Fold this sequence. Notes:
Layout: H1 2-26, H2 88-94, H3 103-121, H4 144-148, H5 151-160, H6 174-190, H7 203-214
Amino acid sequence: MRKAASLPALTKLAAVAALAVLSTGCDLGLPAGRTPHREGNFLDMGSQPKLKPQRKDIFGARATGMMEPQAGTVAKGDDPYPYAQNEADRAGAELKNPFPASPEVLAHGKFVYENVCIACHGPKGAGDGHVTALFPKPPSLMTQKVRDWPDGQLFHRPMRGQNSMPSHSRQVDTKDIWSVVHYIRKMQSEQPVAPAPPQPVPVQAAAAAATQGGK
Ligand code: HEC
């Protein structure tokens, strides 16, 4: 009885062994001792089908593998800035600096200012940064106009950008800019008030002046 019962079991074992031999035979080209544990398991991650940002999308849904966040979604921990570019006044009226002007916050503001803003706005906010030889010169941050702005408005300008100054909200976060606001206030308390920048002459007035000068 025992012998008869073990015969099918032996046959099964032989079949499994034969299959194992066959499947290792298919793995030609693999380094010695490396056997995929199932079909389609790529050992070399470099050669697997995958989404690459600059290449064609393997799922065929888009032109490339690059993905934009879904419209209307917010990343975890993200805090989107609610004011549009032309809402500086509203930002000024509604926003308060959430950070105290502590030595740590001022030190952070100085660090951010001297890494991000200084190239254009200059070491003391006078608008004489190194790149202003080639790019538009910003007005001084020490003018009475900027001193009179509420903190929220001073925060809003670099957040959303203004004319030739692009938005900085991708380079720095809100804590960075609020700290810079404290640091600019500190510079304003130490520096003399800068004269208002000359108003750009309207094109028609400039043309009239040129004609008069020619007479
Ligand atoms: C690439 C050069 C550049 C950088 C970097 C830059 N700015 Fe500006 N910024 C400008 C220019 C140019 C203007 C003037 C724009 C205009 O014509 O209204 C300006 C305007 C401003 C104004 C408004 C001034 C006014 O009187 O209207 C504020 C405030 C300001 N910048 C703050 C910052 C802060 C804070 C940073 C750093 C986080 C920064 N900027 C970085 C170029 C720059």
